[in-house]
Amino acid sequence: MPAPIRLRELIRTIRTARTQAEEREMIQKECAAIRSSFREEDNTYRCRNVAKLLYMHMLGYPAHFGQLECLKLIASQKFTDKRIGYLGAMLLLDERQDVHLLMTNCIKNDLNHSTQYVQGLALCTLGCMGSSEMCRDLAGEVEKLLKTSNSYLRKKAALCAVHVIRKVPELMEMFLPATKNLLSEKNHGVLHTSVVLLTEMCERSPDMLLHFRKVWLLVPQLVRILKNLIMSGYSPEHDVSGISDPFLQVRILRLLRILGRSDDDSSEAMNDILAQVATNTETSKNVGNAILYETVLTIMDIKSESGLRVLAINILGRFLLNNDKNIRYVALTSLLKTVQTDHNAVQRHRSTIVDCLKDLDVSIKRRAMELSFALVNGNNIRGMMKELLYFLDSCDPEFKADCASGVFLAAEKYAPSKRWHIDTIMRVLTTAGSYVRDDSVPNLIQLITNSVEMHAYTVQRLYKALLDDISQQPLVQVSSWCIGEYGDLLVSGQCEEEEPIQVTEDEVLDVLEGLLVSNLSTPVTRGYSLTAIMKLSTRFSSVNRIKKVVSIYGSSIDVELQQRAVEYNALFKKYDHMRPALLERMPIMEKTASNGPTEIMQTNGETEPSVPDTKHLPLVTQPANQANDLLDLLGGNDVMPVIQTTLPTKPASAGGELLDLLGDLSLSGGLAPAPSVPVSQPPFLLDGLSSQPLFNDTSAAIPPMTAYSKNGLKIEFTFERANPNPNIAVITIHATNTTEADMTEFVFQAAVPKTFQLQLLSPSSNIVPALNQGSVTQVIRVLNPQKQQLRMRVKLTYTHKGSPVQDLAEVNNFPPQSWQ
């Protein structure tokens, strides 16, 4: 068989390939020749073939068939064979493959070899890919080599010990005696690897960390080594850009950081050397900057003196002036981590940080923006907001959302006056309205509502902004809401903060009608506009024009807009006497802290988050979108709303469900959808039951009844009488399913006449098991102070065999004991 080509020739041949297909063909041809050579047990060229195989592996081609050949090379007595064999083992083998265990004996023999270079190969291989089993078997040999006088072997043994500790942490104490003498070595390679080994031990074991601090007194030893490095003269062997062994300095600084963390004595011992490193290190080269950065991290992480921390922050401030973008980014990131603990020191570099907002690099701009917001306080709010709003005007779209949110939060926290607060948020809406968060609109509405003295000024500013640009939807929504609430102030020209503008009622209505037909308006914006026009029917004299606009949208293709228009038309016709009271101005909305989730309070059709004031609450509270829909559909103030303890499952469709469920206006005060997510409950008249037994012993006298039985679904009512209030009937529903398939997404809803009050508690489940294998239970509380006959209309929705089912039923045959 002819001699195979050399590795150099193979590389040259592969590089001449013009296409990937041609390269693959060459590789496949050579792999076939290598396989043939392996089958013939050709010892002469095995080393050459494995070397070529490793090159192919580096190019991404499969080379697993050479694993056993690597083991044969390791077992060879020739150093050149061992070198390629160990290299192949490190590249082609790992601990997930059982083949690597066959190497254990060879490595053990080579660790005891008479030649240091063979021992070095074995240490490198064990430290690279040794499994936990191999590490346990060979840890003794590694520990022996740590004690040898040969510096070449000691540094390799130290790195191998790091790998052993990572694989088998319980072997850590084995290396402790041998490690103690490593720091007294003058060889920098041994020093470097010993610091790496000590760092690994400290990170892995708190007990070992305490031992190094208190018993070994490791900090003074490290301080001495670091001081020698700084004070030593020029050494060509270790010098890098005029700095003596920066790699060892960085490693020592990292170990000092671990030793000084949360320890006063260790921190005190290293304060002086850290100050010396920070002041004596040359910053003209990147090597010096790397050491300074590690020094800063160490100072910030230990219990250092305040002056030393200021020095560290000043170093980061100098980094911000560096031309290297990576150094500026590192400085901004580090300052962002320290701004909470050393706020005043970071404030000194505020102008430099703000200048980074103009950087072309997007990563630096983002870090500078985050740090700028962290620096905002009550003293610099005006200046910082000016810079950040300028940044918001010119920044890329990817920054606008985060920047707008940051401006909102900072303005809310540190606003010097309400007018400044409103002007700032309006500036954001004008500049980046399409990028603001969803809650910005209700938050601004609440701010405007609570700023009574600013109503005329605000509505005038928003009206002007609306004339200039209607593309920013949040701005348009806030403007529409304000014009609807305070349109009379706009027309009357009562603004005192700036020169009032002359606006007629028709001009205002023209603007709002333009929003309804604009292609830029979203469905939500159109809803705001229609509601604003409706509100103006009690503030303007152009009632006939408003009636005409509202009636047009009664047949809108947008269901939400259509429903609003239909309800508003009903207010004009049947309930016109109630219209002024329903559309009067919103009261001041109090925003107080709450442990529970924020309630959603109604604002004439628009929702905004607020927390209800429990001192002024009526006996009941209503879910979002339903209370107002009830007013619209049933006639308002004489309706008895439903007591609701939890948020509704489907609030968006509540209006339509009311229409379906109630049918006529003689029925109930409300709809009680099945609740799903518990929230903090407001006080209501049934709360007094919690401290006493819920039911009395006479409840057994009330017979149960079947309220519904259809399509395999059966609803049974059982009754209890609440204690101590005999006017409250507690009804427990039991829903069972006789079909062969589960009924999922089961929701039970109920409505009662307006002389009753009804409360639905959470159901036990939303799945009714098949074949009567279980039931869903739910408790209804009904207050019947007038002892009238109980009537109830129920609505059932569920999914059965993949198809949605919906049904209505009326229950009038309640046993007399349940309501008498």
Automatic annotation (TrEMBL):
Domain GAE: 700-815
InterPro entries: Adaptor_Complx_Large_Subunit, AP1_complex_gsu, ARM-like, ARM-type_fold, Clathrin/coatomer_adapt-like_N, Clathrin_a/b/g-adaptin_app_Ig, Clathrin_app_Ig-like_sf, GAE_dom
Gene3D superfamilies listed in its UniProt record: 2.60.40.1230, Leucine-rich Repeat Variant
UniProt-recorded name of the protein: AP-1 complex subunit gamma
Classification of source organism: Eukaryota, Metazoa, Chordata, Craniata, Vertebrata
Membrane topology qualifier: Peripheral membrane protein
Similarity field: Belongs to the adaptor complexes large subunit family.
A GO CC annotation given for this chain: AP-1 adaptor complex
Gene Ontology biological-process entries: intracellular protein transport; vesicle-mediated transport
Species of provenance: Oncorhynchus mykiss
